[in-house]
Structure formats: structure tokens, C-alpha cells
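Thread title: Can someone regenerate the structure for this chain?

I was given the following input by a collaborator and told the matching C-alpha cells would be attached. They weren't. Posting the sequence so someone can regenerate them.
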Amino acid sequence: MGTVSIVSALLILLSGIGIFLIACQMMSSNLESASSRRLKQMFAKTSSNKLAGVGIGAAATALIQSSGATTVMTIGFVNAGIITLFQAATIIYGANIGTTITAQIVALGMFGKSTLSTTLIFSALTGIGAFMMMFSKKARLKTLGGIIAGFGMLFVGLSLMSGSMETFAAQDSVKSFLARIENPILLVIVGALLTAIIQSSSVMTTIALAMVVSGLISLDQGIMLTLGSNIGSCVVAVLAGISGGRNARRTALIHLLFNCSGVIIFLLASWIMSLFSSGSVSLGTMFSKAFPGAPQTQLAMFHTFFNTVTVIIMLPLTSALVNTVKRLIPDSEQDNAKDEGFRLHYLNDNILRNAPVAVGYVKKEILRMADLAKENTNNAIDAITTLDFSHLNGFKEKEEELDFINKALVEYVVMLSSGSGLSQKDKIYLSTTFRTVRDIERIGDYAENITEYAYNLSNSSQHFSQMAKKEIAELKEKLNTLYDKAIDAYSNEDFEALAQANILEEEIDDIKEKMEENHIQRLSQGICTPTVGAQYLSLSSNAERIADHLINVAKSIRNLKD
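Best answer:
Regenerated them for you:
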């Protein structure tokens, strides 16, 4: 083998890695777009159930073909306070199982070398997917085409990497060099370093598979490289954790400790087997006997076995792991001070990396904002009715938080909208959020106006009549019913709830007119004074405008109708 051949083989390997990475990215972004609703539902249903967390992590990773993306999302959710460290740990466990699917797919593509290989068959999907992306007019078909093309490109990259490995395998000097690297610890370190550089355990495992199949390294060597890749894959999580808060760093450390624990357990198991069998039994011999004649399956099955067994061992120890991490990264005064300020509870920069999931949490932020506006509105109406200003405890803070969310959410949606991986429906939804958050912020402003009317009334040493209070109580009840229907319509895209909200909004208009008429009668009868009447009419007018903004929020779902 000459220098030209070696350089050519290296270039082919680099090309294969590049195509494989692009394929993973294509599949990931298009699968995220196609399954955005499913991803949102999965992460919204996280609970303290250990197995549920593992299942969610495994399913999410299987859907988007990236344990790194799942881990980054999880770190973002913990940082935002959406899920606990315990829940995050179980999701990370599941992500490690879900990522083994890539190795199983690659192993499948390595069969059939003597006939029409599965690699060739699956590679042809690249062309089919590309045609669908180019010539389909429907967005869903284009997305499906992207998934199919990405899947096919996985095998194109695999074919190039396998071919380059066969070239190296024919070189005696390369064989002798790799054969000398028998130290398991050294092989684990090499696997970890290469994975950290590539930032993809899937690519590292695929390279190891190709090397084992070509005979360049033994199955035991491939196993140690695979173990190292699990440690190296933590780099993505560590980078995401560094940019987050205290709990984000803790989550990244959980991922690192979990993966390192699994590697240590299997290294000890391998050492014990070798010690008691005088070197005749190893992890490699076990899997070669279990799956004879199929080295690609042997390594892929070990990968799945390793991650599954590690999860089974670590699952009962999750609470202890979380407590250990909390001790290693304790609370600090700086973190506590930071937590006291206003922040988006469900969103942060890390979640931007998975746009479809972020869209779901934009809606959660808006719903939280609406709850704050409702609470302030009710407290303001209670204050003006009773002139008991204890109802306004915390009112100013909530109003400031509404203003903060309004500004922060708009900025976040701008960043999110400029990214990729969004479905057409998600894009339309995001375009409606600017008006929606403004409507809710205005509700808070009208509630603030009502508190001013309450103070004016109190300063005049006057109050509403019993009849006026009864009418205000009716108005408040109707507003709350409208709120429930409007938010139900917005949250669930329920057009029946929207229809009911429209009826309620018209009824509030009628109540306002009735209140004005009754006020004129009371004024003529001397029951009400002009000063009291001014506050009363201002209250009814502001309440009507609140109803208008609520119905605007509900009507935004019309843009999402298929």
C-alpha cells in the first residue's frame, strides 16, 4: 500500500464521516419537525415514575436519533424548572438506550456483502428522498423525503467508512500497530477522546463496527472503544451544562457519572472474567458465541446490552446519585439571588436547540402569563368592591412580571422563529404569539387601572351601593367564565370553546350597557354620586376591554385551522 492509497483511504474515511454526520442532522431535524407534537406530549408528561422517565428518554432519542439532543433538551428543562433532577436522570438513562438504535441500523446495513447488500438497498433511499424533497409540493411530503434521504445517507456514509477500513485492514503495519493496543483502559481513553472530538457517539460506534467487520481490530477492542464513546458523548451535555444554571450543571454531572459508572462496572466485569478464566473468557467471546458469524451484530448487541444493564443497575440508585450531585455542586448565595429575579419558567437558550419542543413551552409560558393576568384582574375587582386593599398584596410584583414576560417572550420567539426544524403549523403559531402576549399584557394594564379607581374611591371616602356591588359581582363571574373558555380554546385549539367564548363576550357587552343604564337611574334618584359613578363606569369599560383581549387570545387559533 503506497502513500497515495493511504491518503485516499483517509480522505474516503473523512468523506464517510461527513456524510454520516449530515445524514444524522437531516434525520434529526426532519424527525423533530414531523414528530413535534409527539415530542411535546412526551416531555409534558414527565413524572416521578422512574420507568416513565426512561421510556420518554428512549422514545425521544429513537425519534430524533440523537442522545445529545435529548440530553441538551433535558438540561434545558431542568434549568427552566420544568422537571426535577430525579426526572432528568431517568430521561438521560432512557436516552442512552435509545441511542443504541443507530448501531443496530448500521449493523443491519453490513449484511449481504456477497449478494445485493442491504447497504446498497438502503443507500438508494437517498435518491428517493431527494426526489420527494425536490418535487413534492406538500410540506409533509417534503419532511418525509428529508427523513428518507437522511436514512439513506447513513448507509452511503457507512459504505465509504467501511471501504476505507478495508483498505487499512490490508496493511500489515496498521494491523500490527492496532494489535499492540490491547490495554482496555487505553482503548477506552482513545474511544472517549475520538468521540469528544467528533461529538457523536453514533459515529464513533459506527467506525468501531466498520473496523471490527473489516478485521482491523478484534471484537474486544471494538467493545472497549464503544465503552469509551459513552464517556466521550458526555462532552455535549457538559457544554450545555456550563452555559446553564446550577441545576443544569448538576444534570450534566449526572450524565457524566452515570456513563462513567457503567464503563467502570463493565471494565471490572471484564477483568474478573479474564482473571478467573486465565484470559479465555471475555466480553468479546461471550457475544461472538451468542451471535456467531456476525461481528457487526455482536458489537451492536453489546452496545445495547451495555446501556440496558447500566440502566437496570443505576435505576434503584437514582436518588443517591441525585443527592451526591447536589453535594458536589451545592447551592450558593449567588444562585439563590439569581433565582429570586423574574425569568421565563419553561424556556431558555438550551431548549432553542430543539425548536418543536420549544414551541410547546412557549404556549406554557403564555398560559402562565394569562394566569397572572387573571389573578390580578380578580384581585383588582375585589379591591374596588370592598375597598380592602389586602387583596392587592403582591399585585405590583405580578404586574412587573407580566411586563417582563411580555418583553422576554417576544425576544425568545424572534430567536426561535429564525431557527430550523419548525413545521409550517409551528411557524404560523409563533407568528400569532406576538399579538397574544400583547393582549394578555394589556389585560394586566387594565387590572392596574382598576386598582387606581379603587384608590380614588377610597380617597373620596365613598363606596359603591349594594346594587352596584351586585352588578360588579355578576360582571366578575362572567369574566372568569369567559377566561376559562378562552384559555380552553387557546390551549386545546377547541373551536367549540371559542364559539362559547364569543357568546360570553357579547353577554359582557350587554352587562356593560345595563350597568351604564342602571347607573344613570341611580344617579337621578340620588343613590349614586358623580364621583362614585365615574369610577363605576371606568370599571365597566375596562372590564369590557379585558373581555375583548381575552376573545382575541381565543380567536388566534383560527390561523391554525387546517
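The two ends are 61 Å apart (CA to CA).
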